[in-house]
Amino acid sequence: MQPAMMMFSSKYWARRGFSLDSALPEERPAVGSLTLNRSSSGKNEDKKGNKGNGKGESVSEGGKTAVVFSLKNEVGGLVKALRLFQEKHVSMVHIESRKSKRRNSEVEIFVDCDCSKKEFNELIQLLKFQTNIVSLNPPENIWTDEEGKAVFVSLGLDTDKRLAQVSPWSYTPVHSTRILSSTDLDCVPWFPRKISELDKCSQRVLMYGSELDADHPGFKDNVYRQRRKYFVDVAMSYKYGQPIPRVEYTAEEIKTWGVVFRELSKLYPTHACREYLKNFPLLTKYCGYREDNVPQLEDVSIFLKERSGFTVRPVAGYLSPRDFLAGLAYRVFHCTQYIRHGSDPLYTPEPDTCHELLGHVPLLADPKFAQFSQEIGLASLGASDEDVQKLATCYFFTIEFGLCKQEGQLRAYGAGLLSSIGELKHALSDKANVKTFDPKTTCLQECLITTFQEAYFVSESFEEAKEKMRDFAKSINRPFSVYFNPYTQSIEILKDTRSIENVVQDLRSDLNT
Q1: What's the farthest any 2 CA atoms get from each other in the chain?
Q2: What are the tens digits of pLDDT across the range 302-344?
Q3: Is 427 within 8 Å of 458 (Cβ atoms)?
Q4: What is the DSSP letter of 290?
Q5: Do 109 and 96 meet the contact criterion of CB atoms below 8 Å apart?
Q6: 419 included as an active-site residue
Q7: What is the pLDDT of residues 410-462, one digit of tens each?
Q8: For 486-505, what is each residue's pLDDT tens digit?
Q9: pTM, entire model
Q10: Catalytic: 216?
Q11: Which helix (H) or strand (E) element contains residue 386?
């Protein structure tokens, strides 16, 4: 969601004998123009007797060369440029980057590459349409900043539509706004670095675990309270990697589920978004979604894993926003197994399995929605309490109570709406206060738990909501970048040159696959 904060050092280019500063022309070139700088030492001159014809040729028929280009500091900018290198079969030996000294809104990229003259010229023609070419074959000097320190730059890396087509699991967005020393990182709030550490998050239940509040419908029902303790024990005993225990639901629980299932199913064709309607029949087929059967979380988790990479794990009750969002960063959804009290099937003061299975699961099976959910989770890792609360509020008014427009009509995609008969009807009626989703203002809206929301927020699509959240996340102050490694299912902290190079190498490998 948010651009990657990349750090680089002058040591590499000192060894290579290159200087980005010396590669910059004294006068700013016009947008899209080319500037040729020859190496004073002659190392970059043509080596086959071709001394140049004065027409701006810059590369021999084969060999190493370099290019410096600038681009806007925005999400996806670097990825688009790197794809051009791949398309023209230009091998990238090394990449460096720095803040532009010409424009604050841009970054400058130094790419050392190995290719033929023809390939390089074709690449440059394509780069001119997406970037500003600053220099070709820069001269050999030492690249250092004024203070001789490492430089930090913000770059946009994301899994956009093009990358998803190549390798949808190769890269997920990295998030940060600045980098601090490793000592300062000790002050960052704890977050799970590997998926098994979600075991710790799931244990920190805030409310509605084994104890119920006095205003809970089941507070005076001892049988219900004992049953809830059973679900707490199941959730608290669960560890990552284990199959989720199957629950034998009682006749009363199945009856309650059935009422909710039946009444909501009547509304979905006219109230739910198309992505929801696409996946709901699949859940009926593969996970036993029926009026007379409560689906098992293990079956649901297997289904989601195949559809979008998400999984679910049992949880005893409410988690803090930080712990819950951390699960989303790993494409893990904390899911309750208990059923609301049967005295009022159409009301629950807490998320129960009716809410999870009917509200959340159908859309978690959608790849775009799954990515949107994960990116909110990644943005939360290590963020301040204030920023986590803002992200949680945006999550609440999108993934829980969000609306979208389809075929000119309002449709619900929020799980809180899709699991509540009364509020689903209300949100799509003329009585609802509907506003355009804007994270900067939405994050200030009060979240209501026991009554209908005072406002609902509409987006044109999941993609639009995701892009707005990416822009919003740039304001989050966090002292590092993160990269989700889908192969090891771990979070890597990007805080030095080597870690950045490893990510770029992974990205390059996936692009060439």
Answers
A1: 94
A2: 999 999 999 999 999 999 999 999 999 999 999 999 999 999 9
A3: no
A4: B
A5: yes
A6: yes
A7: 999 999 999 999 999 999 999 999 999 999 999 999 999 889 999 999 999 88
A8: 989 999 887 666 666 677 77
A9: 0.67
A10: no
A11: helix 385-395
Active-site residue among 400, 423, 467, 481?
400
Sign of CA dihedral 119, 125, 128, 130: negative
The active-site residue, picked from 106, 360, 420, 459, is 360
- Alpha carbon distance 168, 160 (integer Å): 9
Element (H, E) at 218: none
Is a pLDDT exceeding 60 seen at residue 37?
A: no
Question: For this structure, is 360 an active site residue?
Answer: yes
Distance CA 401, CA 5 (A): 32
Structure tokens at 358: 């009917």
Closest C-alpha to 375, from 313, 330, 335:
330
Q: Say how far residue 189 (Cα) sits from the centre of its chain.
A: 19
Contacts of 49 (CB under 8 A, 6+ apart): none
Catalytic residue chosen out of the listed positions 19, 97, 419, 459: 419
Look at residue 145 and tell me whether its pLDDT is greater than 70.
no
DSSP letters along 457-503, please?
A: EEES-HHHHHHHHHHHHTT---SSEEEEETTTTEEEEE-SHHHHHHH
SS3 280: helix
Q: What confidence score (pLDDT) does residue 171 get?
A: 33
